[in-house]
Design goal:
Blueprint: H1 3-9, H2 22-41, E1 55-63, E2 71-79, E3 84-93, E4 96-107, E5 117-130, E6 134-148, E7 154-170, E8 174-186
Antiparallel strand pairs: 1-2, 1-8, 2-3, 3-4, 4-5, 5-6, 6-7, 7-8
Length: about 190
C-alpha cells in the first residue's frame, strides 16, 4: 500500500505522510538509538559540573539550517563528565521536523574563569523531514552559561547561544548556517 494511502487510512493529514516513510522511520530509529546508547553508556563517567543533575531539558529558538526559516525545538543535554556532553534536539519549523545530536567539548577556561561560562564545539548529525527528506552532518560552536547563584554555587539552569554550520548529504548537497538561543533545566 502506498505511503499516502496508509496515512489516509490511519486518519492522518496527507501533509504528514512523510512521517510514515520507511527512510524517515529508519533514520529516526538510528538517531534515537545512538543518542540513547551514548547517554546510557556514559552514566558511570559522571563527575562534571552537573554531576548531581547530568540531564537537562529545555527549549531552543532560532533560524534553521538549509532553508528552514524558523525553528523551535525541544533540547536535551547529557553530561558525560566536566567537559563532554551529548546535545540532542527535536524540533519543527517551516521546513518540517528536525532531529539532531552533537557530541560537545566545553572549555571553561576561555573566559578567564568567569563563573559558569564555557565555549563549546563539536560534530554531529541531523535528519530533516517535511517538504523534502534530508540528512547531513553539522557542527556546533557556542557559549554556555551554567548559571550560578550569588554564593557561586551552581543552579540547575543553563542558557546558551550557538552557530550551527551544516552540510546536507542526502536529497541534494547544500550548505547552510543556523543560529539558536535557548535554555535548559537540569533535573535528573
Amino acid at each position: 500500500m502506498p505511503v499516502s494511502a496508509a496515512a489516509l487510512q490511519l486518519g492522518l493529514n496527507p501533509r504528514w505522510k512523510v512521517f510514515m516513510h520507511p527512510e524517515f522511520l529508519r533514520a529516526l530509529r538510528t538517531v534515537l538509538g545512538l543518542a540513547a546508547l551514548g547517554a546510557l553508556g556514559a552514566a558511570p563517567l559522571l563527575a562534571g559540573p552537573t554531576s548531581s543533575n547530568p540531564f537537562g531539558l529545555g527549549v531552543a529558538l532560532g533560524g534553521g539550517v538549509l532553508g528552514d526559516v524558523a525553528n523551535a525545538s525541544l533540547t536535551g543535554k547529557y553530561w558525560f563528565d566536566g567537559t563532554h556532553a551529548l546535545d540532542m534536539g527535536l524540533g519543527g519549523g517551516v521546513g518540517g521536523l528536525d532531529l539532531n545530536a552533537d557530541y560537545l567539548w566545553h572549555n571553561f577556561g576561555v573566559f578567564h574563569h568567569r563563573h559558569g561560562l564555557a565555549l563549546y564545539y563539536g560534530p554531529g548529525a541531523y535528519v530533516n523531514v517535511g517538504n523534502a527528506f534530508g540528512t547531513g552532518i553539522q557542527g556546533k560552536i557556542g557559549v554556555d552559561w551554567l548559571i550560578q547563584g550569588r554564593d557561586h554555587r551552581p543552579t540547575p539552569w543553563e542558557v546558551f547561544g550557538e552557530l550551527v554550520p551544516a552540510i546536507n548529504i542526502i536529497q541534494g548537497v547544500g550548505f547552510g548556517v543556523g543560529a539558536d538561543v535557548g535554555g535548559r533545566y537540569y533535573f535528573w
